[in-house]
Design a protein that fits this description.
0% strand, 62% helix, mainly alpha, binds zinc ion, 261 residues
Length: 261
């Protein structure tokens, strides 16, 4: 019986079960205490929250101020960059944060799957202490690293004479990164808080909370900001009994089974 059910199981489901088999509530509480007590005394959750926002918004403003003779066709860069960012978010979450990579990529995996996911599961998504933002937000230098990775592309676009396109690309991707940070934080705030009660946040938080179910985390709901790429790739999980478009049912292998395990 077990062999039959395993035969139909996706490799990602098996991986999720392997990673989370020792996750108990007591172990998770201990891990939370260990992480909080190991934080340096100078750690400020407010500064950690403000830095990416200030850096990102400042970059957007500077890029907009540097635009010259903007043509309407160049504005197409904005939706294209938003779509590209959504796809990269999906891919990086699935293949970097949920699979142990080589070198520094392993650190990103360790921070996300065995730590962030272990601390917060579908039933326990809420932070209890503001210092837990250290386990929810990207490291403070995350947004700077994302900007640095884009600099060669920006340089190439400038060399080729696409100044406005390059600036719009950078402004939009920084805006998206700030949105990622703020939305992810919102999903982990108490459900009865002012932000947690907003209907849009409640809907998106439910999408992200499903991803935090250890049985689903390796395969479902990989988008964090807006679940567009999840929908396009057929990884948008909905609980049994909730309407699922035919397209998604056809491209997924029985998500409801994961719910019952
Ligand atoms: Zn999360
Ligand atoms: Zn994840």
């Amino acid at each position: 019986m077990e062999a039959t059910s395993l035969k139909h199981e996706n490799i990602d489901d098996l991986e999720a079960r392997r990673i989370s088999k020792d996750w108990t509530l007591e172990g998770r509480n201990q891990l939370r205490d260990q992480i909080l007590s190991a934080l340096p005394g100078w750690y400020s959750p407010l500064a950690h929250f403000l830095f990416p926002g200030i850096f990102g918004v400042a970059t957007v403003v500077v890029c907009c101020l540097l635009l010259r003779d903007l043509r309407s066709i160049e504005l197409v860069t904005i939706p294209i960059t938003l779509l590209l960012s959504n796809a990269i978010e999906w891919r990086a979450h699935k293949h970097v944060l949920h699979k142990r990579g080589p070198g520094p990529l392993a650190m990103l995996f360790e921070r996300h799957t065995p730590m962030h996911h272990r601390l917060y599961t579908y039933e326990t998504m809420e932070i209890r202490d503001w210092r837990e933002l250290s386990m929810v937000l990207l490291p403070w230098f995350g947004i700077v690293s994302i900007l640095s990775l884009q600099l060669p592309l920006l340089g190439l676009a400038l060399l080729l004479g696409f100044r406005n396109v390059a600036l719009l690309f950078m402004a939009t991707s920084m805006f998206y990164t700030v949105m990622y940070e703020w939305m992810h934080m919102a999903y982990h705030l108490p459900k009865d808080s002012f932000i947690g009660r907003r209907p849009l946040i409640r809907w998106l938080a439910e999408h992200h909370a499903r991803h935090h179910d250890p049985k689903l985390m390796q395969r479902w709901n990989m988008n964090v900001t807006v679940p567009l790429w999840d929908w396009l790739r057929g990884t948008y999980y909905r609980a049994p009994g909730v309407f699922v478009p035919t397209r998604l049912r056809a491209s997924s292998s029985e998500p409801a089974r994961a719910e019952s395990r």
